[in-house]
Each structure stands twice: as C-alpha cells, then as structure tokens.
C-alpha cells in the first residue's frame, strides 16, 4: 500500500492512503463535533413509539440547520439521511414507519459533510427497559471499539486494531462480523484503508501520522454470518441473533490517536442520562 500527501484536490479514490496535515485535522474536528452533537440530541428522542422515519427527519433537519449535508442522502441511490438498525439488523437499516418498541436496541449511524469534510459516527440506543443480554452486548461492543482505538499509534498496523477487538469479543461468547469494515475518510466518504475488525498483531497496513479512518465493529450475540435483504441495503444476522455497533472517526497523530466524534455531553454509550 502506497501513501500520498493529501491535497485540496484529493477527492477521488486512487488506492493510495492519504496523509493529512493540521488544516485537515481542524476540518475533521469540526465535522466530527457536529455529528457527535446530533447523536447526543437523539438520546432525548429515541423512545418507545417513535418511528425510525422520525429519527431520519430529525437528522436531516439538524444537518441542514447547521449548514451541513447528510452524506448518506442519495448516496448510491440511498434515500435517507441516516441508517437505523434495530435488534438483529447489523447495519444499513432503512428508516421507515416501524415504531420502536420497549426492549428494542437500535444503532443510529450519522455521517455529515461539513465544509467538505466527512464526520462519521454511530451509537447504540436502548428503547426503554432492555434485556440484560442486550445490555451486555452493547457494553462489549463499545469496549471492543475503544480497545481498537487504543491500539492506534504510528508504527502499529491495521492487524493490531483487529486483534484488539477480536481477542476481547470472542472470549465473551460473541462474534465479530467479517462482512463489513471500517474505512478511510476525509474529503471522501469511503477511502483507503479498510479497517478489518479481526486480525493478527503486526499484519496489515502500517499506521502513519495523518491517516483518517473509522473504527466501527459490529458484534453479534450469535454467529458472525450476515445476509443482505432484497432492498439491497439492510444487512441482518443469519441466525436472527441481536447485533450491535459503535463507530468513531479517528486520526493518527504523531504520538497516538485523536477521536473526532467524541460526545460533548459524555453520552458515549447507554444508559444515557439526559
């Protein structure tokens, strides 16, 4: 894998990893902060009885009110401003007229374009009182993401990230989804490198200062296998087991990692006290 210094015109995928400078870090902080604020505010409206289409309406209005654009809206034909993935939906759940009910868990994935920079993050939300196994799944998934992020530093590899996640999750009798991964981003929604959430230490792509990417493990209570439904987007667990996901956008610094999408209200994982 080759590396290249990112420029203002780095708006296409070339197979190279872009290395960004201080101005780019500032742009990503602004984009990430807005997404994190949106996810914080969702903690006040996700409740039994709300339609996932109402969540989507909220995200779209929030973006436009803050002079941003929801990156998923009309992306490759996708018609919504967010993804809402409920219970056994692994990712890319499409909002609609399905009301959330007591005991559901839902991942809301938000990406916004702010001054040309992409902020991308997702969180789990508990709908009313949820089961203990759902709580545990959410806790393990969040911890897995944070362990993956803690592995990020110059000279480490993408395999180190995957190993940190996999070696924590599997002893919990849970599984890591293989079919979807994290990705590079910046002035593009999806770029190099792919961040696989399983791996071996020292393998994969070397991390260098200036790299931007997401870490977004999807963890299942059952087996890791998924299938995509006929709508072409919605991915579900094949065994109908519960699935959870958290996602942060991060940048590799000279001495470690910066998380661009931290919650300003300390609402990083349920239960959310708002």
TrEMBL record:
Superkingdom of origin: Bacteria
Record's keyword annotation contains Metal-binding: yes
Residues that hold a divalent metal cation 1 according to the record: 109, 120, 247
Note on cofactor: Binds 2 divalent metal cations per subunit. Has a high-affinity and a low affinity metal-binding site. The true nature of the physiological cofactor is under debate. The enzyme is active with cobalt, zinc, manganese or divalent iron ions. Most likely, methionine aminopeptidases function as mononuclear Fe(2+)-metalloproteases under physiological conditions, and the catalytically relevant metal-binding site has been assigned to the histidine-containing high-affinity site.
Binding positions for substrate per the UniProt entry: 92, 190
Known cofactor(s): Co(2+); Zn(2+); Mn(2+); Fe(2+)
Any matching Pfam family: Peptidase_M24
One of the record's GO molecular function terms: metal ion binding
Peptidase M24 domain segment(s): 27-253
Top enzyme class: hydrolase
UniProt-listed GO biological process terms: proteolysis
Catalytic activity: Release of N-terminal amino acids, preferentially methionine, from peptides and arylamides
Binding-site positions, a divalent metal cation 2: 120, 183, 216, 247
Enzyme Commission (EC) number: 3.4.11.18
Keywords: Aminopeptidase, Hydrolase, Metal-binding, Protease
Function noted in UniProt: Removes the N-terminal methionine from nascent proteins. The N-terminal methionine is often cleaved when the second residue in the primary sequence is small and uncharged (Met-Ala-, Cys, Gly, Pro, Ser, Thr, or Val). Requires deformylation of the N(alpha)-formylated initiator methionine before it can be hydrolyzed.
Family in the record: Belongs to the peptidase M24A family. Methionine aminopeptidase type 1 subfamily.
Assembly with partners or alone: Monomer.
Protein name, per record: Methionine aminopeptidase
């Amino acid at each position: 894998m080759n590396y290249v210094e990112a420029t203002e015109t780095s708006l296409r995928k070339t197979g190279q990893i872009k290395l960004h400078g201080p101005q780019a870090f500032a742009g990503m902080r602004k984009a990430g902060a807005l997404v994190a604020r949106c996810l914080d505010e969702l903690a006040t409206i996700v409740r039994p009885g709300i339609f996932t289409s109402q969540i989507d309406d909220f995200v779209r209005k929030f973006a436009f009110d803050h002079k941003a654009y929801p990156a998923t809206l009309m992306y490759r034909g996708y018609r919504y401003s967010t993804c809402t993935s409920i219970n056994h939906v692994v990712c890319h759940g499409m909002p609609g007229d399905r009301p959330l009910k007591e005991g559901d868990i839902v991942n809301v994935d938000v990406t916004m374009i702010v001054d040309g920079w992409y902020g991308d993050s997702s969180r789990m939300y508990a709908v009313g009182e949820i089961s203990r196994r759902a709580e545990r799944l959410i806790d393990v998934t969040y911890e897995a993401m944070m362990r993956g992020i803690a592995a990020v530093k110059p000279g480490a590899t993408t395999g180190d990230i995957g190993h940190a996640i996999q070696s924590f999750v599997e002893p919990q009798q849970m599984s890591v989804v293989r079919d979807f991964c994290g990705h590079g981003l910046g002035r593009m929604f999806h770029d190099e490198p792919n961040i696989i959430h399983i791996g071996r230490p020292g393998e994969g792509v070397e991390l260098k200062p200036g790299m931007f990417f997401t870490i977004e493990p999807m963890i299942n209570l059952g087996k890791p296998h998924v299938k995509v439904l006929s709508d072409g987007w919605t991915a579900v667990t094949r065994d109908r087991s519960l699935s959870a996901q958290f996602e942060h956008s991060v940048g590799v610094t000279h001495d470690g990692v910066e998380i661009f999408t931290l919650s300003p209200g300390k609402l990083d994982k349920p239960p959310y006290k708002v």
